[in-house]
Amino acid sequence: MLKIGIVAEYNPFHNGHLYQIRKIKEIFGKNVFIAVVISGDFVQRGEISFLDKWEKTQVNLEYGVNLITELPLYYSIQNAEIFSKMATQILDYLGMDIQVFGAEEENIEVLQKVLDLQKSQDYKDKLMEYMKKGNSYSTSQRLALKEYGLDRIVKSNNILALEYMREIEKSNLKIKPFIVKREISEYNEEKVEKEREEFASASFLRNELEKILEEFCGDKNLKSKKLILEKLEKIQKFVPKKSFEIILENLEFKIKNGINWQKLKKEIFKIVKYKILTEKKEKIMKIYDINCEIYARIYRGAAISKNYKEFLENTKSRNLSNKRVERIILNILLNIKAEMMDFEINYVRILGFDKKGQKYLKKIRENNNFEDIEGKNDFEKKNIFVNWKDIEKFGSFSENNGNMENSENIKNFKIQENFFKKIKIEKNGFLLKELFLEKREKLNPIIYLNNQN
Prior knowledge:
The protein has helices at 15-28, 53-62, 73-76, 80-93, 108-118, 121-132, 137-146, 156-170, 202-216, 225-236, 241-256, 261-278, 281-284, 292-304, 308-315, 322-334, 355-367, 388-394, 407-437, and strands spanning 3-8, 33-39, 42-43, 47-48, 67-71, 98-103, 176-181, 348-354, 384-385, 446-448. By secondary structure, the protein is α/β, with parallel strands linked by helices. It has 4 domains: 1-104 and 156-183 and 347-453, 3-Layer(aba) Sandwich (Rossmann fold); 111-153, no CATH class; 202-255; 261-340, no CATH class. α10 (225-236) packs antiparallel against α11. It is found in: Cytoplasm.
């Protein structure tokens, strides 16, 4: 059985995502096994996800995904390099044969050419030259690639694709890359043409949903439901039926409970401002992705800003984008420290599975091995869990009686120590979700046994 892996945010799940799943089955066969690694309640842009992890899992199972796992919170909210690196490692850890990803460039050889080029000293010199002139990293990358006639490659999905391929090559992973060309919509588009009938980006869909939230937030009895449905007609054609149903339920819950993004950002800013201005510099400096220059900017920004928007404007610089600042805000809120970011996979959390996924998990459990059920390959322990409490138990402290002067024991002890810290970060995320979205974390996966895909 061929095993295909996908990495996605599905925020929300739209027709482009369904197209990719159907294309996979068209190319590799209907009986292919599909596993997905998703970011959960917090996403790579440094924001709270519009749909939570369980809503994403539901719609994935409805449309033919067999196994859904979560990219741990402390990796899902970092830059494209870390997000891609760790998600790809999880797919490889799960035993997937091929990683399929969408990209604007459909020729994988062109992307490989860019990867090879970026290793050269000539390219590195050009990149550094443009950065010294005051350009951001992204702009410098585009300008450097332009000299080789490859500047068209600097697009959102191509950048992620390059990072997936870079990680596969760098870590010598078994999984192989495969592109399904992204159809029509741009990743960050905020408007679509009226004649567009099928595809629109998640960014466009979120913007439209946020407008509805702003307009109707606080309508506890949903007196405006008819008007809300009329507004939703603008996006309904761009999402599958089950996804639309989940989006509507999500909207109704947020409207009834007075939850919208402006309110959330207002609350987030209050907490972060308090932490930045009252914590000692040494403590804030331990947070991941903060250096002296960044600390100075965010401290000044917090001191002079009255709201979230002002804070972003007052901290932004040539080398510090708004999105990076938003990721740093979450790192501070969640207390993600640099010392714990060891880029190890301590566990894989299963969010949902269907019958085929259940069988695959059973084989892993019985054989402790992915690729060869007859046991011809070496056995390898896989820390894969379907219940959050089991992850906590697995990470419970056991005294290290080994010789701490032994470098291997010291390394293992450090990994174990970081494991406890990572579990605490995940639980911090559960608490923030409860405070901001009024939703408690589920501890068990969604089991979907009616899927005929």
